[in-house]
Amino acid sequence: MVTMAGEVVDEIVAVAVWLRASDVHFDPVADHLAIRFRIHGKLIDADAVSHLTRTIPRQVVGRLKVLAKLSLAEQRRPQDGQVRLETPHGAVDVRVATMPTVRGERVVARLLPVDTQWRTVASLGLEPAHLHEVRKTAAKGGMILVSGRVGAGKSTTLHAILAERSQAGDSVLTIEDPVERKIDAYSQVEVDDRVGLTFAQGLRTALRQDPDVIMVGEIRDEATAQIAVRAGLLGHLMLSTIHADSVEQVVLRLLELGIDASLLASALQLVIWQTLLPVMCEQCRGYGCGACIGVGLVGRRAVFSLLRADGVVDVIEAVRGKKIRSYSLRSAQSQWRGERRLSVYGVLGTSEQDGGIAVAEQGEMDRTGYGVSPGRSE
Questions:
Q1: In this predicted model, which residue has the larger pLDDT, 365 or 238?
Q2: CB 144 within 8 A of CB 238
Q3: In terms of C-beta distances under 8 Å and separation of at least 24 residues, what long-range contacts does 326-335 make, across chains too?
Q4: Which of 98, 119, 245, 247 is the right S-S partner for 271, CB 3.0 to 4.6 Å?
Q5: What pLDDT, on a 0 to 100 scale, did the predictor assign at position 324?
Q6: Pairing of strands 172-176, 187-190
């Protein structure tokens, strides 16, 4: 049974890599597992895009847990692990996360091809003015925050900045949860709540390690936010991510976490917000065909929005002047009432895993306020 389960896992991962899926979902249904792939942000049944059957035996969960060095006996608590697998389409790092449900353990495997390289800032495809802004801010220090929804490529942007600062000779220290890829050029610390190594504790200790650049994977709470602002004020280049739906909401979110407005205005030098928009297949216009493997999409393109230090001050002043009375994004947007926008908008397109870049000119603002224009692949 172990051999059969192992062969099933190998085949599923191989197909997922070939399809350029970012995740594989193993959902418990009745006495079996339903398999779905996340391709270009869209969740699709395995049998719709491959020769695989839609359901497989539950023993596959056990095999995944063994590979990721997770406890087979523990089925009541979530677990996380990682394993590197070889496939006919290249090696891939697989991050395995389990979750107990009323029907059994649910597993999601995040895939990261080993041959995927972290980008430089220049390769992100930013407009020249935006590229200059990011590099200038990174060189002088202070806090840079990258925001966006889950899977929007925030880590790619952070590591692009880190790569350039490391090449410039800076001492780089990162605190991540988890460390998705080990990089020789800088020191990486993995968060471990079981021993009290949280983002806040790691960041507090990092300040005593004399780094030039500190990256914290995510600002989740007031403690981490307070220490991150302090690091930015001390002259370090402080990089992190925070969940928000716009560059303005990043500022509002930090104020909501209790950060002093005057300290925030001094520390926060740049906010980058990004999202990924689907690119429809031109041959079938999204209906699905052989060219797009029935998905209807051929990739996703990224939309970037930048908020500079002077824009941060403007948002803070708007809050103080009660032009924005709520930390809610929808409320803030409705309360802005047509006053000058604070963001500098730029658009680019990216292929998710093979590193292809699609460049686009700055587009007109749509109703959400973000520049949107079609990209072209290179």
A1: 238
A2: yes
A3: 327/249, 327/252, 327/253, 327/255, 327/256, 329/244, 329/245, 329/246, 329/248, 329/249, 329/252, 332/248, 332/249, 332/252, 333/246, 333/369
A4: 247
A5: 60
A6: parallel
Instruction: Kindly give the pairing relationship between strand 90-101 and strand 79-87.
Output: antiparallel
265 and 313 in contact (C-beta within 8 Å)? Answer: yes
Residue % of the chain over a pLDDT of 90:
52
Q: Which of helix, strand or coil describes residue 316? A: helix
Dist CA 237 CA 79 (whole Å): 33
pLDDT of residue 332: 41
**Per-residue pLDDT at 341:** 37
The contacts found for 104-108 with CB under 8 angstroms, 24 or more apart, are: 104/28, 104/58, 104/61, 105/28, 105/61, 105/75, 106/25, 106/26, 106/27, 106/28, 107/25, 107/26, 107/61, 107/64, 108/23, 108/24, 108/25, 108/26
Measured over the CA atoms of residue 239, residue 245, residue 250 and residue 253, the dihedral's sign is negative
In whole angstroms, what is the distance from residue 81 CA to residue 67 CA? 9
Going by C-alpha positions, the residue among 250, 298, 16 that lies closest to residue 154 is: 250
User: How far apart (Å, rounded) are the C-alpha atoms in residues 233 and 138?
Assistant: 14
Q: Which one, of 228, 304, 302, 303, lies nearest residue 269 by Cα?
A: 228
Per the structure block, which two tokens stand in for 11? 């085949």
Q: Is the pLDDT of residue 372 over 70?
A: no
Nearest to 108 by CA among 169, 155, 150: 150
Question: Residues with Cβ < 8 Å from 74, sequence gap 6 or more?
Answer: none
**Is residue 250 within 8 Å of 147, Cβ to Cβ?**
yes
Sign of CA dihedral 116, 297, 306, 328: negative
Exposure on the CB side of residue 224, measured as CA atoms within 13 A: 21
| pLDDT given at position 6 | 83
Q: For residue 280, list its beta bridge partners.
A: 297
**Structure token pair of residue 282:** 């031109």
Per-residue pLDDT tens for 303-347? 788 999 999 999 999 888 766 654 444 444 444 433 333 333 333
**Banded pLDDT at 236 (limits 50, 70, 90):** very high
Taking residue 149's Cβ as centre, other Cβ atoms within 10 Å add up to 13
CB neighbour class for 264 (10 Å; exposed up to 12, middle 13-18, buried from 19): buried
Q: Measured at the alpha carbon of residue 180, what is the angle toward residues 2 and 45, in degrees to the nearest 5?
A: 55
Strands 172-176 and 104-113: unpaired
